[in-house]
Amino acid sequence: MTEGVQHRQAEPGKRYDVFHTDCPARAVVDHVTSRWGIWVLISLRRNDLRFYELRESIQGISEKMLAQTLRALVQDGLVRREVEPTTPPQVTYGLTEFGRELGEPLTELFDRITRRLPPYSGG
Amino acid sequence: MTEGVQHRQAEPGKRYDVFHTDCPARAVVDHVTSRWGIWVLISLRRNDLRFYELRESIQGISEKMLAQTLRALVQDGLVRREVEPTTPPQVTYGLTEFGRELGEPLTELFDRITRRLPPYSGG
DNA sequence: CAGGATCCTATCCGATACTG
DNA sequence: CAGTATCGGATAGGATCCTG
After folding, report:
1. In Å, how far is B86's CA from the nearest CA of chain A?
2. B114 in the Ramachandran plot: left (φ > 0), alpha (ψ -120 to 50) or beta?
3. Which residue's CA is nearest to the C1' of nucleotide C11?
4. Positive or negative, the Cα torsion across A34, A36, A37, A41?
5. What domains appear along chain B, each with residue ranges and CATH number?
6. Which of A16, B32, B41, B97 has CA 20 to 30 A from B61's CA?
């Protein structure tokens, strides 16, 4: 990290850094590291997916949380949403360049964890 | 922290990965990406810190959450805890090799976000 | 299929008080 | 200093029902 990041204090008496909650980056960090955000991002790294494909890929996620997570990620500019006006309607999600940028360290993180912790004793 | 992971059985032909399981890696991911986990890890990358130093470094964190986060991270083998039997007692926290391994992508993630989102216009 | 609205519970997390 | 224990408000998140 940039060494000076933490103490980016603005006013005396009011300590003010990214570790605290006011920084806009903090919101992105929160979304990315939210319970489901990381999985959505990693899932979409491979290829674009539709809503139900995402839901199946990330088993355990509820539709509500998927929609909510997706919305936050789209707003943050990490995920791109494409609606095809067919019948029935198809919505495809994919990563933006920013999303792909963040997907890398996220995948690396995930990778390092699983490399160290064998997923299943049975294989 | 979040231990309420969906229990899912392995079915033949069914994809079974860390995305939707009680895989041990999932717990680590949850701890690392917990509200405070990432900041503790990043803080400790620079150098070892004592409890109160961590608390001051990560402004906004309560003692309860710091202790709780630290405990989880120590249990996961990411953080090392050293007690010096002095008076008053001193406890120093530092990263294990595993912790340092994970700190890298975490820092990279954080770095890429802040690089894109300038923390403060006035800063 | 893709999601919004609602209800409700689990948990997170901060404040406070106390211990060694 | 370095925590632990407890309480209570806030919120995250699941289940279900409903719509275009």
Report:
1. 30
2. alpha
3. B2
4. positive
5. 19-115 (1.10.10.10)
6. B97
A90 touches strand D (CB under 7 A): no
Q: pLDDT per residue over A44-83, tens digit each? A: 999 999 999 999 998 789 999 999 999 999 999 999 999 9
Q: What token pair was written down for B75?
A: 């249990």
d(CA A26, CA A58) in angstroms, rounded, equals: 25
Say which of B29, B57, B101 has its CB closest to residue A110. B29
* Contact yes or no for A77/A107 (Cβ under 8 A): no
Q: Strand D positions with any atom < 7 Å from protein CB?
A: 1-6, 12-17, 20
Q: What sign for the dihedral angle of Cα A64, A70, A74, A77?
A: positive
The predicted-structure confidence for B13-43, as pLDDT tens digits, reads as follows: 333 355 555 677 888 999 999 989 999 999 9
CB-defined contacts A:B, below 8 A: 124
Residue B27: closest CA among B46, B2, B62, B44: B2
Distance from CA of B113 to the nearest CA of A (A): 6
Asked if residue B71 keeps its beta carbon closer than 7 A to nucleic acid strand D, the reply is yes
